[in-house]
Structure formats: C-alpha cells, structure tokens
Design a protein that fits this description.
The complex is a heterodimer of chains A (481) and B (311).
Chain A (H helix, E strand, L loop, with lengths): L26 H9 L2 H17 L3 E6 L2 E6 L2 E9 H26 L3 H4 L5 H5 L21 E8 L5 E7 L6 H14 L15 H10 L11 E4 L8 H11 L2 E3 L4 E3 L5 E5 L2 E4 L2 E4 L22 H6 L4 E3 L10 H5 L1 H9 L6 E2 L3 E2 L3 H9 L4 E5 L9 E2 L5 H13 L4 E5 L5 E6 L2 E10 L1 E4 L3 E3 L4 E5 L13 E9 L5
Parallel strand pairs in A: 3-23, 5-13, 6-7, 6-11, 11-12
Antiparallel strand pairs in A: 1-2, 4-5, 4-20, 8-9, 9-10, 14-17, 15-16, 15-17, 18-19, 19-22, 20-21, 22-23
Helix pairs in contact in A: 2-6, 3-11
Chain B lengths: L2 H33 L9 H6 L3 H7 L5 H9 L8 H14 L6 H19 L4 H25 L4 H29 L11 H11 L3 H8 L5 H10 L7 H13 L7 H15 L7 H26 L5
Classes of the chains: A alpha+beta (481), B mainly alpha (311).
Chain lengths: 481, 311
C-alpha cells in the first residue's frame, strides 16, 4: 500500500505523528500494512466483509416503518493505543464509574449531595430519568450501573476527554469482540509477539459481575438476558452475549412474576426460577404494571420483584438519572464529593444552559458550539454550530430559552483521526472510543473498547445508525514486543 | 429450555424441511415433463395442490402454466409456502434461537438465505433454476449435517428433529395424495402409458428411487411404491420411519402429558392396519386425508404440551 503521503491535515492522528512517522505503538502495524499490496488488502477486506454479513453481525436501521438489517461497516486498519496511556485511562474510568454509582445510590436514598448544595435540587426535580419508583431502594453492593459504556474522544492537542457516560443500556461490546475475531482471521501474522492485549474475556467478566448479584445463595444462579426481540437494532448483541455467557436469551413474554414477587421463565418443563436479569429493554418498557401500560416488551410485576430483592436487574432501573448531559457537567464535582479525589479523566468543557450566565454565552456563540439535548442519544437532536444554518440556530435559541435545563453546549472538538481504508487507498477519518466498564464485586474495564469511525470524509458523526463504522482497538504493550 | 425457543426451533425444523421438499418437487417435475410426451404431461398444476395452496393460486391465475406455477412456488411473497417465504421463516426462527445453535449452523442458514435472496431477485432461467434448486437441497442437507455433527443432542436439537419429521411425513402424504390420485384411478382402464416413469418421479421427488430399487427389487409399481413410502422402516423418507423417529423423540421430552405420543401411536396403527397395496382412487384420497388429520393433531398436541399454546 502506498501510504507515504498519508497526512491528517493538522488533526491529531492516532497512528501517525507529526512529520509522518508512526507512533511507537503503531510501528509494527504500519510497517506491515505498507508492505501489503493493494490487491491483497482488497482481498482481505472482501473476506472480512463477507464474514460479517454471513455471521449476521448486523444492526437494524429504520426508515419510516420498515427495518432493514445492515452489516456494520468494519475498517481493517486498527486503532492503536499504548498500554501505558491506557492504564491511566482505565484508572480514570474506574474512578468515574465508582463515583457515578455512589451518586445514583445517594439520589435515590438520602440525597446528601443535594443537601450539601453540590448538586442543584431543581435539576433533580426536572430530571426525566429520575424514577420515583426507585426511591429508598439500595440494590446489592449499592451498584446501579453495572455496565457502563463511556464515550471518549481525543482533541487536537492529544488530550482524551470523556464525552458522555451511557449508564442505561450501552451497546456495542459485541462489535468489539467480533472485530477482534475478524482481525485475527484476516491478519494472523500481526498477532504474533506484538503485545496486543486480549479482549475476549469480556463475556466471562460480564457473567461474573451478573452472577455476583444473585439474591439466592446458589452455586449456579440463573442469569438471563432480556431482549426486546429480533427486531431490535441490537438483537445481534443480545444473542451474542447470551450465547457467550451460556445464559438464556429471553423476551418479556417468557417471564412471569408470581404473587410472592418471584420471577420465573416458561420452559418446556414448566416454570424455572430466574435470579439475575441483564435487561436490554428500556426502563419505560420493563414493567407495564409500573411504567408504560402499553408495553408489550416487559414483564408485569418485574419492578415489585426487584424492589423486594427477589431478582437482580442490571442495569438497575433508574440508573439513567446519571446518564444525562446536564448531570455530565457535574461529574467532576461528583467525583470530588464522593471520593475526595481529583478527576483523572477530563470532561469536555460544558456550558449548562440553566445557569443564566452560561446560557447567555451559549446564545451568543451558537455558531461555534455543539448544543445537545439532555436526554437524546445516538446523535439525534443536536446542533453542530459551525455547520448549522441561521434558521437552525434560531430554532435552537428558541428551544434553549424555552427549556434551559434540557440543554448543554460544548466547544467543537478537533476529533482525532485514524488512517482508514477508503476507495482510493488510505485516508484520515475521525474516530471516538467506547470502553465498557463492569461493576460488581470488582470493577473491570475492557482492554480498549469499540472504536467507532465516521466513514465520510470530514464527518464527525460516528453513530452506526448514521453512517459510522468500527475498527478493532489495540492496546499495545510496547515493552513486550 | 424456554418454551418459546423450543417452538421456534420446531418451526425452523418444519420450514427448512419444507423448503427442501418444494425444491425437490420442482426439480423432479422438470425432469418428468422432459421425459413425457406432451399429451401425457402431468403439467404443473399438481404442485399447487400438493403444497395446499390451490385456491390462493387460482385467485390470481387462470391456468397453471409452468412459468406461473414456478414463480408462485419459488418467489411469491403472498404464498406462505413459497421457497422465498419458507427460507425467510427458517432464518427468522433460527435467528431468534441463535444462542442455542452452533454458530456454524446459523451462519450456513444465513448464507443460504442471503444467497437465495440474491438469486431469486434476478431472472431464473430453466437451466439456472435447476442449478439453484439442486444447490439449495445440498445446502439444506449441509445445515442438517452441521447441526447433527456439532450440536449437543439436547431438547433444543430434539425440537428441530420433531419439526423435520412431522413436516416430512406431511409432505410425503401430500405428494402421495395428489400424484397417487392421478396415477391410481378407480378403474385400471384409465391407466395411462408411462405409468412407471411417473411412479419413478414420485420416488425421485423423495430421493427414494435408489433405495427403493435396492430394497424392493421389483419393477416400479404403484402398490409397491405406496407400501415403500408409507411403511418402510428403514428409508428416512417413509411416513412410518418418520413416525418411529417422532415417537423416540417425544418420549425423551419432559412432562407427564402423553397426548402427542398417543396420536403418533394411532398413526402407526393406521399405517400397519391398512392394506395399503389396495388403495386407489377415492380410498387412497380418504386414507391420505385421515393421515393428514392425524398429523395435524400431532402438531396440536405438541404445541399444547410444550409450547403453552392455548389452542
């Protein structure tokens, strides 16, 4: 491959340093790719696209009323991070998730952080994701968000920032696992003696974290994965994780809660008890008795079973209260408050529109800022200032004034790039990173995570529903190779 | 094992067997029509009757022309037993249970589905049609082999086999009903020439020709073919064979309820007690009707016992 002329035009590039030389951790892979001829690379790319399609590694995209399965585009060139740097990020993520769990537990119980004036009471009062039904509950180990997916981005100067924390039902980990499988199949040579840290133990770590929540003292707790069904965009992942953990993959209609608040699944031998539910159904739909009555996806009575401690739910209902772009702005304070430590990972500087001075600044600088609603995910409902039209900015100004609590704004970051295979060779594309953090008896962080890549030149939108793809992420121990 | 997934695997077993059966039927009809002079031609209309969709077909077609029948059996979205819809249903059912089956098997099913979607979207010439159908039959066999060779022989696997054997018995009875009625009329004067070629095609549609020759050792005659396909204990595409397999499978499932076993036993008695060599015309049709009613009862009993269906 001709990659001599690769340049990332002033963006921080994950693989190539200024001056065009590969960074230390990327040397081996860069050299290897350079020596592959284009036909060989094209052939390998074809082989891996086919493998993904046949394996049904798909996500579902919805246009109006019809859904289609799409293979998630996968890019062959890995994203590389040196182990030393990663260890700092890992420590920062553990710190962050530990503090967030303490925060959620506090909000549903004594609300000391509010009493102490660190977190504004009015924010809590207006929070969409705060569930009154969860007040006074303390789940096992005091943990609410057992699985967290935090999105990290790197700015132009090389600093890693946390962009958001997904504490409800973060997805994408199966792509991380699959991408590694594909890479091993396509580039076996690269994995010999190169110090690439493995990722495959995630399913067993997840199983251990879930099993540690079991309310009954049994050796083999019954752990199930609750999916909305085959038409959900992440069904592939639900099935994949269930299979890898040896857990049953259930739908709402497979479960039943009896009068003693115990949960059972309907099997061919009758009813069998369930101890832990890794639920991939949104809060609002998990229990028509407690939340949306019209939900066909949930299990009537699940909330009472959970409240009485008869079953564990991961993530706990209501954990989303901390998964909110306004709460995000307070995470550094939250870490200091609960842990008495300085945050190890930076937040992106964030303007909170409910603070009058900050709102005034945001309204004056809409053209430079990214404005995000508090409770949307998947990149929907955002204003990207530098690319917006005057009309869009006026619309957002109105929206912000009407409901300031619902908006935050951040400067546009110069997202880092990574060399990516494109039509005519290799070109820089913007990326982010979603590591997954498991909290149970221990806290575990994946080695790397899912690198998402915006496949359109110049685009900053990495979401798979909007034309993003993914890459394998390598944490490389440069001292081992 | 979850009742819902047991049901999905059962339907997977039925649909994939149905797809294979339809592919065989079309191919054999092709070959038969090439062998017969046009006056004796059985035409394509029996296929519509065999798959049980005559009224649906007749609603939109005036005559059973080859092109229309094949299109209807292969591509038609509104036909619940077209190849296209049965492959879709096989895949959806297996997909919903993909955590229970070996990954290789799911990937083969998915590849078969993707491949057939591609091929079915283009124009199928007669020549390509035969290649496509033959490959499809092989692919179905490959998936069955992968499942047998790599899947624990647990209840999940049992439900696939139960679906397969029930569907297979059903398909045999339909083929015999339609072809037998044409080929075994009440009075022997109606017997046309080429009778034995036609019975050979019945055997071939169930890949039974070679085994028939080895085990029956006489010329191909209607009564012998009937006996072979209804009662042979060793040929995997005889109804008796399917019933014995079903009996073994059902006995291994949990639960006290033996309704389905009782129906299967009744079916076996029916096969044993009937002078199948004497069946022709109306008696043949009513015997096959009775078989099909019993097979439908087996299905109902299985669903009520293990899937919790309120029927």
């Amino acid at each position: 491959m001709d990659m001599e002329n690769y340049t990332s035009n002033n963006f921080y590039d994950e693989l190539i340093a200024k001056g065009g030389r590969p960074r230390v951790a990327s040397r081996a892979v860069w050299k290897y790719l350079k020596n592959l001829d284009k036909d060989e690379l094209t052939e390998r790319k074809g082989a891996c696209d086919l493998a993904a399609l046949v394996a049904g590694i798909t996500f579902r995209v919805y246009f109006e009323d019809t859904g289609v399965d799409r293979a998630m585009p996968f890019d062959l060139i890995p994203r590389v991070i040196a182990l030393k740097e990663w260890q700092d990020i890992e420590a920062g993520l553990k710190q962050r998730v530990t503090a967030l769990n303490r925060f959620i537990d506090d909000l549903y119980n004594d609300q000391e952080i509010v009493k102490d004036g660190v977190f504004p009471a009015e924010l809590l009062a207006n929070s969409e994701n705060f569930l009154e039904q969860c007040r006074g509950i303390s789940p096992p180990l005091g943990i609410w968000a057992h699985i967290c997916g935090s999105d990290l981005v790197r700015d132009g100067d090389g600093t890693m920032y946390v962009l958001e924390d997904n504490l409800r039902i973060p997805s994408g980990v199966s792509y991380m696992l699959e991408n590694r499988q594909v890479m091993k199949r396509v580039f076996p040579e690269l994995f010999e003696d190169s110090g690439i840290q493995p990722v495959d133990d995630y399913p067993s770590q997840l199983y251990d974290a879930l099993a540690s929540l079991a309310p009954r003292p049994v050796d083999y707790p019954s752990v199930v994965v609750l999916t909305p069904g085959i038409y959900n965009s992440a069904y592939f992942e639900h099935a994949y994780l269930a299979q890898q953990m040896g857990a049953a993959l259930v739908e709402g209609r497979d479960l039943i809660v009896d009068d003693n608040d115990e949960v059972f699944m309907r099997t061919i031998s009758g009813l069998e008890p369930v101890d832990v539910i890794y639920r991939r159904v949104d809060d609002a739909f998990i229990d028509p008795e407690a939340f949306r009555e019209d939900s066909m996806l949930g299990v009537p009575g699940l909330m009472r079973a959970w409240r009485s401690g008869k079953v564990a739910l991961a993530n706990a209902p209501g954990a989303g209260v901390a998964d909110d772009k306004v709460v995000y702005a307070y995470v550094p304070e939250i870490i200091r408050y609960y842990l008495g430590e300085e945050p190890l990972l930076d937040n992106v500087p964030t303007y909170k529109c409910q603070v009058p001075d900050e709102m005034a600044y945001v309204l004056d600088h809409l053209e430079e800022l990214v404005v995000k609603p508090a409770n949307e995910s998947g990149g929907y409902g955002m204003l990207i200032g530098p690319r917006s039209t005057k009309k869009e900015r006026e619309k957002f100004a109105r929206l912000i004034k009407k409901d300031p609590r619902n908006y935050i704004a951040q400067p546009t970051l110069a997202l880092s790039t990574c060399p990516t295979f494109v039509q005519n060779g290799v070109a820089p594309r913007h990326i982010d990173l979603r590591p997954f953090v498991l909290s149970g008896l221990q806290t575990y962080v994946t080695n790397g995570g899912l690198t998402r890549v915006a496949l359109k030149a110049g685009s900053l939108v990495v979401n798979s529903s909007q034309g993003g793809g993914s890459k394998d992420t390598w944490i490389v121990d440069t001292e081992a190779s | 094992m979850l009742a819902r997934l047991a049901e999905n695997l059962y339907w997977y077993g039925r649909y994939i067997e149905r797809a294979e059966g339809i592919a065989r039927l079309i191919n054999v009809t092709d070959h038969l029509n090439m062998d017969l002079p046009s006056g004796v031609h059985t035409g394509w209309e029996p296929l519509v009757r065999i798959t049980g969709n005559a009224s649906l077909f007749n609603d939109s077609h005036e005559a059973a022309r080859e092109h229309d029948v094949v299109r209807f059996l292969v591509l038609e979205d509104s036909n619940p037993t077209s190849l296209k819809t049965t492959l879709e249903s096989s895949r959806e059912n297996l997909r919903s249970a993909r955590d229970l089956v070996p990954r290789e098997a799911w990937e083969q099913m998915n590849a078969l589905y993707i491949k057939s979607q591609e091929q079915l979207s283009g124009k199928l010439s007669k020549r390509r049609r035969q290649d496509f159908l033959e490959q499809l039959i092989l692919d179905c066999q490959q998936i069955a082999g992968t499942l047998q060779g790599t899947m624990s022989q647990d209840h999940a696997y049992d439900f696939i086999l139960i679906g397969r054997h029930l569907e297979r018995a059903d398909m045999i009875s339909r083929i015999l009903e339609v072809r037998g009625y044409d080929l075994l009329p009440e009075t022997t004067e109606d017997l046309g020439p080429f009778e034995s070629v036609q019975w050979m095609s019945v055997l071939k549609s169930l890949t039974g020709y070679q085994m028939y020759r080895r085990h029956v050792r006489s010329r191909v005659s209607g009564a012998d073919v009937l006996r072979f396909l209804l009662r042979d204990g060793q040929f995997p595409r005889s109804i008796m064979f399917c019933m014995r397999a079903l009996e073994d499978l059902l006995e291994g499932l949990p639960g006290e309820d033996d309704r389905s076993l009782r129906v299967v036993a009744r079916l076996q008695r029916l096969l044993n007690d009937t002078q199948v060599g004497d069946l022709k015309g109306k008696s043949l049709a009513s015997f096959m009707d009775q078989l099909q009613i019993e097979l439908a009862d087996t299905d109902t009993a299985i669903r009520q016992t293990w899937f919790g269906s309120d029927l």
